[in-house]
C-alpha cells in the first residue's frame, strides 16, 4: 500500500485554512486537514525579522499526490511564498493508511 504523506503549512487565520482545507478534501487531494489555531511565529522575511499570529494546517494525503496537492495549495494560498513541507510518514496504522488511500483515490466530491 502506498505510504501516507503529511504536509505542514501555515495560514494567517483559521477561516482561510479551513476554506483551503475543504477545497483540498473536496478535490480528494487530502483525506483530512487539521487546523491548529493560536500559533505565534517569528520568521525571517526579505531581510527583516517578522512576528505574526498564524494557524498550522496539517494535511493528510498520500505520497503520489505530493505534487498536485502542492500545486492546488499554492494556487489557493494567500501568502506570496507559502510554507509547504512534505513530511514523509515512516509508519502508519494500516486502517489509517487505508482510510487515507480510500479518501484520496476517487473523483472529486460534488456539491
Structural descriptors:
single chain, 111 residues, alpha+beta, Alpha-Beta Plaits, 37% strand
Could you give the topology of this structure?
Blueprint: E1 4-11, H1 14-26, E2 32-45, E3 48-62, H2 66-76, E4 85-88, H3 94-103
Antiparallel strand pairs: 1-3, 1-4, 2-3
Give the CATH class. Alpha Beta
Radius of gyration: 14 Å
Unreliable stretches (pLDDT < 50, length at least 5) are none
Work out the helix count: 3
Give the N-terminus to C-terminus distance in angstroms.
Answer: 30 Å
Largest sheet: 4 strands, antiparallel
Strand content: 35-45%
The total strand number stands at: 4
Tell me, briefly, the overall form: elongated
- H-E string: EHEEHEH
Number of domains: 1
The secondary structure category is: alpha+beta
Biggest β-sheet: strands ordered side by side in the sheet: 2-3-1-4
CATH architecture: 2-Layer Sandwich
What is the fold named in CATH at topology level? Alpha-Beta Plaits
Could you tell me the mean pLDDT?
93
- Estimate percent helicity: 25-40%
Amino acid at each position: 500500500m502506498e505510504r501516507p504523506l503529511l504536509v505542514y503549512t501555515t495560514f494567517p487565520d483559521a477561516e482561510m485554512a479551513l476554506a483551503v482545507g475543504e477545497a483540498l478534501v473536496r478535490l480528494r487531494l487530502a483525506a483530512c486537514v487539521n487546523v491548529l489555531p493560536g500559533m505565534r511565529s517569528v520568521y525571517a522575511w526579505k531581510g527583516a525579522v517578522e512576528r505574526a499570529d498564524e494557524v498550522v494546517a496539517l494535511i493528510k494525503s498520500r505520497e503520489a499526490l505530493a505534487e498536485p496537492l502542492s500545486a492546488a495549495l499554492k494556487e489557493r494560498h494567500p501568502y506570496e511564498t507559502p510554507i509547504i513541507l512534505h513530511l514523509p510518514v515512516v509508519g502508519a496504522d494500516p486502517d489509517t493508511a487505508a482510510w487515507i488511500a480510500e479518501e484520496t483515490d476517487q473523483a472529486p466530491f460534488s456539491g
